[in-house]
UniProtKB/TrEMBL annotation:
Source organism of this protein record: Halalkalicoccus jeotgali (strain DSM 18796 / CECT 7217 / JCM 14584 / KCTC 4019 / B3)
Name of the molecule in the record: Molybdenum-binding protein
Membrane topology listed for this record: Peripheral membrane protein
Family under the similarity heading: Belongs to the ModE family.
Domain Mop: residue ranges: 164-230
Protein keywords: Molybdenum, Repeat, Transport
A GO BP annotation: molybdate ion transport
Length: 234
C-alpha cells in the first residue's frame, strides 16, 4: 500500500493508483474484523460471499495484504485484518472526519536547508534530523510542513524496514500528549531537537497502539506528502 499514490476524494473515498476504496469496501473490512471471517461478514451485511471474496482480492492487488486467512471449517475459515488494513481504515476515518469539517488539520513546521536534490524531491537538514520532501528550485533556507493526517505511528518493533515502504521519513519519538476530540485525537511527540511532531489518529488507533504520555513510537511520513517552501530570514 505504501508504494502507491494514495489521495483523498470527498465523494469517491480513497484513490490508490487506479483503484477506488469506497464506503462499501470499508464496511466490508470492518465487518471482517468484527465477525472473524469473510463468510460471517457477508452474512451480517447480507452480501454475496463470492463477490466479497473477489473484491478483497482486487483490493489486495492494489494495496497489498489486507486479510489474513485461516483455511478450513464450515464457515470457510477465520480471517483477521493485517496492520495494513487497519492503517487503511484509520486513513479513511481521518478523511471522512476532515471532509465533514469536524477537525482542523494541524501541521508541524520545521526550519532547515536543502542539502541534496533529485528532481522535485530533496533532503532538508532540520534540527531533529534529515527530512525528504518536495523542495523549491531556489537555494536558501526553507520551512518544511508536515500535515498531521499524513503521519503514521507504529510501535518500534513493528516498524517496516525503510526499503519496504515509500514512507522514507521516520523519527523515533516519545508521546508527550494525547488530545482527544469526538472521533480523532492529536498525538504530540517529542522527536528530539526540541521539536514536537503532531499526528492525527483515530480513537481506535490510540487504543490499539496504547498511546499515552511516555509511550515510544516511530512516526513515518512520505516525502511526497511533505513540502518545503522558501523562507526569507530577517
Amino acid at each position: 500500500m505504501d508504494e502507491q499514490d494514495v489521495r483523498g476524494s470527498v465523494e469517491a473515498g480513497l484513490i490508490v493508483g487506479e483503484e477506488t476504496i469506497t464506503d462499501r469496501d470499508v464496511e466490508l473490512l470492518r465487518a471482517i474484523a468484527e465477525h472473524g471471517s469473510i463468510h460471517a461478514a457477508t452474512n451480517a451485511l447480507e452480501r454475496s460471499y463470492a463477490h466479497a471474496q473477489r473484491r478483497v482480492v482486487e483490493l489486495e492487488e492494489a494495496l497489498g495484504p489486507l486479510v489474513e486467512r485461516q483455511r478450513g471449517g464450515s464457515d470457510g475459515g477465520g480471517s483477521s485484518l493485517t496492520d495494513g488494513a487497519h492503517a487503511l481504515l484509520e486513513r479513511f476515518e481521518r478523511l471522512d472526519t476532515a471532509a465533514e469539517g469536524l477537525v482542523a488539520v494541524e501541521q508541524t513546521v520545521l526550519s532547515g536547508r536543502v542539502i541534496e536534490r533529485d528532481g522535485e524531491l530533496g533532503v532538508v537538514e532540520c534540527a531533529p534530523g534529515r527530512v525528504r520532501a518536495l523542495v523549491p528550485p531556489e537555494e536558501g533556507p526553507v520551512a518544511v510542513a508536515i500535515r498531521s493526517d499524513a503521519v503514521t505511528l507504529t510501535p518500534p518493533a513493528k516498524t517496516p524496514d525503510p526499503t519496504e515502504t515509500s514512507a522514507r521519513n521516520r523519527f523515533a519519538g516519545v508521546v508527550r500528549a494525547v488530545e482527544r476530540g469526538e472521533t480523532v485525537a492529536r498525538v504530540r511527540l517529542d522527536i528530539g531537537g526540541e521539536t514536537r511532531l503532531v499526528a492525527l489518529v483515530t480513537h481506535a488507533s490510540v487504543e490499539r497502539l496504547g498511546l499515552e504520555p511516555g509511550r515510544e513510537v516511530v512516526a513515518s511520513f512520505k516525502a511526497t506528502a511533505t513540502r518545503a517552501t522558501p523562507t526569507h530570514p530577517d
